[in-house]
Write a structure and sequence with these properties.
Length: 276
């Protein structure tokens, strides 16, 4: 909620706003603060993080960025863009002016995908054609029921995700190519759908090892999607991204921005980690 009641919330018809924020710590500025100032700065950030996390339908991941591309990262998911904007300004200033320098940021929204597999497609292509199961048999019905349950969960997760505290977080922005014969947006829907089907198959093999969240950013930021991957082992991040490069949809159409790797940490450890 905004402090000024005349400012209306800006909540999308469905889904949430998502901000990825990456900051570098200005250690020269920080070293000029005395112990008392440093303590109160850290308390301010800690209190702010608690306040953000106490906001309805709002999640905030805090992580240390590996490599000097940045030091501290936040991933904020919240319905109202007014809140997202307010929290983002507060986070930037929380340790005092000039301490956190923006290194990279990304605005996107959670979204459904128009290529999600339907139960009919799964029944036809996967159960009948690939697995050779007969409709009406117990095996077929059970497999279809499992699929429907999984998809309900998957759709809910895409729009209203609750992300686990798995240690490794990978973020990168991406777009689909729009060049000559490889213009994703000039392909007919059926062709795009077929290509995305192959992509989903590769992705599903990482179930339980990779938690992926694809958020849309056309019109909101410089690329078309933000890709967030959570993992317990960085090998799974490396191998899913590698394997997908062979997938026709990534091989022909994928264009990628910078990659950021972070480690989710509680704030007290995060402060120690980045030497604050
Ligand atoms: O089962 C289904 O039908 C859902 C399938 C699915 C869609 C629609 C899916 C599954 N993704 C979808 C959409 Mn994905 N994804 C990426 C990347 O690095 C790269 O090459 C690409 C980055 C990864 C790593 C990944 C992982 N996916 C999308 C879209 C949006 C396209 C659109 O809507 O126009 C993008 C940009 C994208 C990119 N994908 C999966 C994964 C994984 C792990 C899965 C399986 C999820 C699961 O079933 O649990």
């Amino acid at each position: 909620m905004s402090d000024d009641p005349s400012i209306s919330p800006l909540v999308p018809r469905e889904g949430w706003h998502v901000l990825h924020l990456f900051y570098a710590v200005d250690h020269a500025q920080w070293s000029m603060q005395d112990d008392e100032e440093r303590r109160s700065a850290k308390t301010r950030l800690t209190t702010l993080v608690q306040e953000i996390r106490a906001t309805k339908d709002t999640h905030l991941l805090t992580f240390a960025v590996v490599t000097p591309k940045a030091d501290i990262g936040f991933m904020l998911l919240t319905p109202d863009l007014q809140d997202a904007n307010r929290f983002e300004k507060q986070l930037s200033l929380s340790l005092g002016p000039g301490i956190l320098d923006a290194a990279y940021s990304y605005l996107s929204q959670t979204e459904r995908s128009e290529y999600t597999t339907t139960a009919e497609q799964y029944a036809e292509q996967t159960l009948k054609e690939e697995k050779g199961l007969e409709p009406g048999t117990a095996e077929f019905d059970q497999a279809l029921e499992e699929f429907e349950e999984r998809m309900e969960h998957y759709l809910q997760h895409r729009l209203y995700p609750v992300l686990p505290d798995w240690p490794a977080i990978c973020f990168y922005p991406m777009s689909k190519r729009r060049q000559g014969g490889d213009n994703w947006y000039s392909l007919p829907f059926d062709e795009r759908k077929r290509l995305m089907g192959g992509h989903a198959r590769t992705g599903r093999a990482y179930s339980g090892r990779i938690l992926q969240l694809i958020t849309g950013s056309t019109g909101l930021d410089d690329w078309e999607w933000g890709v967030t991957l959570l993992a317990k082992d960085t090998i799974d991040i490396k191998s899913i991204v590698y394997e997908m490069r062979f997938d026709e949809v990534s091989a022909r159409f994928g264009e990628f921005g910078e990659f950021y790797i972070g480690l989710q940490l509680p704030l007290a450890e995060l402060f120690r980690r980045v030497c604050l």
